[in-house]
Amino acid sequence: MKEYYQMSRTEAQKSVNGSTHPLSEDQIKKNQQKYGPNALVEEKKKSILQIFLEQYKDFLVIILIVAAIVSGLLGETESAIVILVVITMNAILGTVQTVKAEQSLDSLKAMSGPEAKVFRNGDVIKVPSSEVTIGDIVMLEAGDYVPADGRILENASLKVDESALTGESLGVDKTEEEISGQDVPLGDRTNMVYSGSFVSYGRGSFLVTAIGMETEVGKIAKLLKSTSEKKTPLQMNLDNFGQKLSILILVFCAILFGISVFRGESIGDAFLFAVALAVAAIPEALSSIVTIVLSFGTQKMAKEHAIVRKLQAVEGLGSVSIICSDKTGTLTQNKMTVEYYYVEGKEVPAADIDLEEEAQKQLLRHSILCNDSTNKNGEEIGDPTETALINQGDELGVPAETVREKYPRFSEVPFDSDRKLMSTLHTLKTGSTMVTKGAVDVLLGRVTTIQKNGKAEPISQADIQEIEEQNQKFSRNGLRVLAFAYKSVPEGTTITVEDENDMTFLGLIAMMDPPREESKDAVAECIKAGIKPIMITGDHKVTAAAIAKRIGILKDESEACEGAVIENMTDEELQDFVEGISVYARVSPEHKIRIVRAWQEKGNIVSMTGDGVNDAPALKQADIGVAMGITGTEVSKDAASMILTDDNFATIVKAVENGRNVYKNIKSAIQFLLSGNFAGILAVLYASIAGLPVPFAPVHLLFINLLTDSLPAIALGLEPHSESVMNEKPRPMNESILTKNFLSKIGIEGLIIGIMTMIGFYIGYQESALLASTLAFGTLCMSRLVHGFNCKSDAPVLFTKRFFNNIYLAGAFGLGVLLITAVMMIPWLNGIFQVQTLSLTQLLIMYGLSLANLPIIQFIKWIRKKIGK
Fold it and tell me: Catalytic positions, please?
């Protein structure tokens, strides 16, 4: 069966209604019952309680809940309460971030105009857009939103802005004639209109062929419903990390349990002690620390014009290896701009236009006069190509109002999409003059003379060939070209279409939606950071390729293709194909999703940027969806993880840098927590093997978890950012936090801290078991505070400016030292924390052993850096 765009108007009406007559009242009611309302169906959303409970699905959180229950059964109520409070706070934070549930479909609904003008019972009446049904005839005029999809029946210079749906920056001239060919892209179906677009010029009518979920916008809504959000690398890593960490701790506790039983302790006591150690060893604050660090990351990014809707997106951006970007409004300014004049045989860049040259001044004047657009107080009204022409006048100090007041319009022949011309009549210095602009090929067929050196001379074939070559040159570079001509007419003439002949060719004006100034540098930064930028747009291939070349995305023409090329490819074929393509033009929303998914299947973390309705499904499919805050539709914003308030591609690159730094800082915090916990486990394990008393009381472990763990770990998460992270390649998606290299650092650092702790224990053990426990506890606490400085970087930081550049870490260290010293020296705190008061000598021993960790670990870092590990 033919598509509607392939049918004539009569065929389309008969196919839909069975006749060419408008619907009767009975048919309207039947169709409304049969097809339902012209609205989008919304899926059921999760309740706040469901979202809250989902925060507890993390493996590490489940282990902690079990640990809290066991702690309560063991009588350690404080420990159980602390664990439950920490994980509940984390769940609340997570809920607050995600409770802004997806409202994509609500926004899509809002796009349909509240009212539509339909032809019923011989009259044009207004009805709610939800009542428009299949077979209705809808009337359109400039400023109207299109309420449904349909086939154009009547057309009077109708121009429709479909940028939100197709991504094409320019308005589309419509026609009522049928279109031949199979699988014509959406943007090229010029005899169709689509819900969600709006009329920018002219008027017309169309036959409704699809409503609600069957419209192109409805299909996008279905894609949004069927598209699942992806976990960020950090989420996957933390899930994996939590499981591995829990297994490691359980192995240690099992070993300790075996040793205790072997030494003759009862199975019950040995089991309870092993479980208590497991509770102490698991970093309860890890999830909260990650959430806090990500929250600080969102605040930093908000100041840099990036609003993060989902916390994990901060880190996820740091892992991105592919950035798929829309062109219009993202890489470009979304504003047509004059690039070149071509007049009297000279190509003149816009920056070099000289109004002392009479021909250039004349071309500027004619472009302002033969023009319907206005720009008052920054509010542009009219076609983007026309506003570009008057904006050029403003830049050159020639306001449109001044020119139009001096040379008022007496008559006009409006632009027509079939004729592709527009003419206006003015009284210029040379007398009554008709000024005409239009398509180059059309205008060249209507000129008989050409202006040279200020005079009209007969136009030769060589002149025509030169103009055509110049037009082709502009077109190859993605420029939109308008030709200008003029003709003297008798005073008092009312110009008509017949007057548009025997004119004098004046010149060409070439325009384009230019790249943002920052885009080129941002793309270069991406490539340096190992990220492949890809342009995906609904615009034409020539235009897209020209922009991509300018900003460095495209190196060779072979790297650009149209969406139709991938239409019939299998997913496997597409995965091989995407490697060699950097620019995709004339793509549909389905194409965008498939391209994003193909890169994901190849093991890449993919970010998708965009601003239109057509971008929304791909934004949701991507690992990190980034929407434009200024030009972006509400649909795209709701589907995205992050919104750019300045619509600037360069902000994404800054966000990537932030994300990489956040991940690096989170990893430093994890290294700090695990190496310190490992030191404690080793001390307990050694004491058990050696038959020594247990070095720590339960209250010691609680103090360590609450104070010497959390504050420095959070402070490390707020370590100042470094630009050097952009010299690294993106880390692999499946790379675990617990790499061999990372575990070896934790093991060595934990061993050194554990040795210092047990030295303190042995020194104290010469006097009493209580003093041994006191010195071991104090040394471990202080060592962990000092160790925070070791975890700032993989490189040595001692004796560098970087050592003191984190005020949060310095504050956490100072507060921790104050607290542990108070516990050791204030008698009434001794009983609470089961320690004895230390003498000044014993206190200095504790300090000395703790500080010794710093030069030893820094020296090891220096050696590792020297040997490249």
Answer: 326
